[in-house]
Each structure stands twice: as structure tokens, then as C-alpha cells.
């Protein structure tokens, strides 16, 4: 089953795709945890569910138990609701965060990020990148074009303007083509060589926008090809990752350690890929 993770104020809200209805089922305990910040959201939900039943609230009759992956990697039967029912559930929870959560929950997938994320999910079945293009600038351009085609007019195109972020200036535009040629020639036979190449591509930042989301997929393809590994991005804390990448130009030890600790051999696990996309896009949220 296709699963998804969205993030409300750094709280995971997991969902499972219903192919027959073409709708998402959202986990009740995650919604409760996000809104109440209860130290024991499962108990909170259990008490709330009992209260709703005693009040003859029909919401509980529309609850389905679906198997959802937990932090330990195992799947457990979990109470889930469709989107319209989640709206009703939220109204039953006394919290100052209700209005803010509803604004977030009803966020439109018609935004650029929303549409791009859907495209990223589809990348798994695309077979877009030839084996000899993995780890190359051309392969990265194809990934970027796939994710942002029709959304940005520069999708897949190497930037011709110099850009900066957080006071750091990426590779100057006039030197970018030469820098990318150098990166293409870098070895990628060991873990350390692959990380070095990833760090250099991040410093190059070849696109006007969407570099991180594209390059993380690019990195996973290299790991898969060379080491038969990929990154379980859910194991890497957002703030730790961003901090490590900021430091990587001068000292790559932190990002190296984070990636090493998160490597897995589940390279053919579609759910692992989908979860990776969720976290990758989460890293880019302000």
C-alpha cells in the first residue's frame, strides 16, 4: 500500500492510500498527537474514542483499522479516517491549535511543492535514468526536469545566474559548467567518495530552485548502484541534516556520519522510497 508522511510542526501525520476510493486514510493517533502534544497520544485517542461512542457520535463507526509502519519498522493495525472525517475528529478535540491545524491539513496539493511531490512519488516507476547516467550532471538534470517540469520554466536547466542562501554564495555562474565537469569526473566507488561527490554537487547548486529535492534522489541512485544501499531519510533529523549540510563545504564529517548511520539495504522497497520523498520535501519546509 502507498503510504505518506506529512509534517505539522515537526509532528508526523501518517496516511495510507486507498486505491479503490482514490483517497488517503489518516491515522487518528498522529492527528491527536499533533494537536494536543499529549505525552501519550494513544491513550488520549482511546479515551476520546470511548467518549465519542458514549455520546453516540457516528464518527467512530467510520473508523478503519489499517496497518501502518511504526518507528520500529513493523506494521501495526491503526485507527484511520478519511479526510472529511479527520475534519470532524479535529473539531472534537479541545485545542487552541485546531484552526491552525485545519489550515495546514486542507493545504492544497495544487501548489508547486504539492505537484512536484506527486511527481517525485511517480519517479519510482519512471525508469528515467540510464545506468550510465547515474552520478552524472545529465542524470541530475533529468531528475530535476521530472520533478519540476511544467512547474518551473527552468526545469532541468543549469542556472546562468549566481545565487546564495543564508549568506553562503554557491558556485559562481560563470564557473559552474567547469565545476560540474569536474564533479562528473569524481570517483564514486566507496562511501566516502560518494559523499564527497554529493557535497560538491550541493556546493555547485546547479539549479535556480529544487536542488536539494533533486540531489537527494541523485545521491540515493549512486548508493544503490555502487553499494547496493540507500538512505532511510526518516532516520535523519531535519535540523541535524540542515546544519550538517551548511557545514559540509568546510567540514563534511557531520553529514558523513548522518548518512552512514541511516544507510539501509532495502533498495527495492517502494515504501522506503516514498517515505524518503516525504522527508526530503519536509527538509525544505520553512
Quickly describe the structure.
The protein has 286 residues and is an alpha+beta fold. The chain contains 12 helices and 9 strands.
Secondary structure elements and pairings:
Layout: E1 3-8, E2 11-18, E3 23-27, H1 28-36, H2 41-54, E4 64-69, E5 75-82, H3 83-91, H4 98-105, H5 112-122, H6 137-148, E6 164-165, E7 168-169, H7 176-185, H8 191-204, H9 211-227, E8 230-231, H10 238-247, H11 253-262, E9 263-264, H12 270-283
Antiparallel strand pairs: 1-2, 2-3, 3-5, 4-5, 6-7, 8-9
Helix pairs in contact: 1-2, 5-12, 6-9, 7-8, 8-9, 10-11
Instruction: Kindly report the name of the CATH homologous superfamily of the largest domain.
Output: Fido-like domain
Task: Give the domain tally.
Answer: 2
Poorly predicted runs: none
Main-sheet strand order equals 1-2-3-5-4
Order of helices and strands: EEEHHEEHHHHEEHHHEHHEH
| CATH topology description of the largest domain | Fic-like fold
Specify the biggest β-sheet: 5 strands, antiparallel
Strand composition percent: 5-15%
Indicate the radius of gyration in whole angstroms. Answer: 21 Å
Number of helices: 12
Please provide the count of β strands. Answer: 9
The CATH architecture name of the largest domain reads Orthogonal Bundle
Helix content: 40-55%
Q: Please tell me the overall pLDDT.
A: 92
In angstroms, what separates the terminal alpha carbons?
Answer: 29 Å
Overall shape: it is: elongated
> What is the CATH level 1 assignment of the largest domain?
Mainly Alpha
Question: Keywords, please?
Answer:
Fic-like fold, five-stranded antiparallel sheet, 2 domains, 12 helices, alpha+beta, 286 residues, 9 strands, two-stranded antiparallel sheet
Amino acid at each position: 500500500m502507498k503510504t505518506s508522511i506529512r509534517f505539522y510542526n515537526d509532528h508526523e501525520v501518517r496516511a495510507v492510500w486507498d486505491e479503490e476510493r482514490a483517497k488517503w486514510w489518516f491515522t487518528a493517533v498522529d492527528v491527536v498527537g499533533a494537536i494536543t502534544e499529549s505525552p501519550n497520544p494513544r491513550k488520549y485517542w482511546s479515551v476520546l474514542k470511548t467518549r465519542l461512542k458514549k455520546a453516540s457520535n457516528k464518527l467512530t463507526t467510520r473508523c478503519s483499522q489499517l496497518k501502518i509502519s511504526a518507528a520500529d519498522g513493523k506494521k501495526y493495525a491503526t485507527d484511520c479516517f478519511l479526510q472529511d472525517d479527520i475534519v470532524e475528529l479535529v473539531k472534537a478535540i479541545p485545542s487552541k491549535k485546531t484552526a491552525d491545524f485545519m489550515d495546514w491539513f486542507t493545504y492544497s496539493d495544487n501548489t508547486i511543492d504539492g505537484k512536484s511531490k506527486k511527481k517525485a512519488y511517480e519517479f519510482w516507476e519512471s525508469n528515467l535514468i540510464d545506468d550510465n547516467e547515474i552520478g552524472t550532471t545529465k542524470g541530475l538534470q533529468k531528475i530535476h526536469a521530472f520533478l519540476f517540469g511544467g512547474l518551473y520554466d527552468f526545469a532541468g536547466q543549469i542556472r546562468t545566474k549566481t545565487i546564495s542562501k543564508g549568506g553562503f554564495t554557491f558556485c559562481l555562474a560563470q564557473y559552474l559548467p567547469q565545476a560540474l565537469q569536474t564533479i562528473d569526473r569524481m570517483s564514486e566507488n566507496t562511501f566516502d567518495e560518494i559523499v564527497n561527490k554529493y557535497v560538491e554537487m550541493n556546493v555547485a547548486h546547479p539549479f535556480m530552485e529544487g536542488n536539494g529535492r533533486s540531489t537527494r534522489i541523485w545521491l540515493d541512485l549512486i548508493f544503490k548502484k555502487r553499494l547496493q544501499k540507500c538512505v532511510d531519510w526518516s532516520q535523519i533529523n531535519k535540523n541535524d541534516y540542515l546544519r550538517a549540510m551548511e557545514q559540509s563545504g568546510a567540514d563534511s564529517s557531520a553529514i558523513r556520519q548522518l548518512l552512514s548511520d541511516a544507510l539501509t539495504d532495502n533498495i527495492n522497497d517502494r515504501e522506503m522510497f516514498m517515505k524518503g520523498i516525504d522527508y526530503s520535501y519536509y527538509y525544505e519546509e520553512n
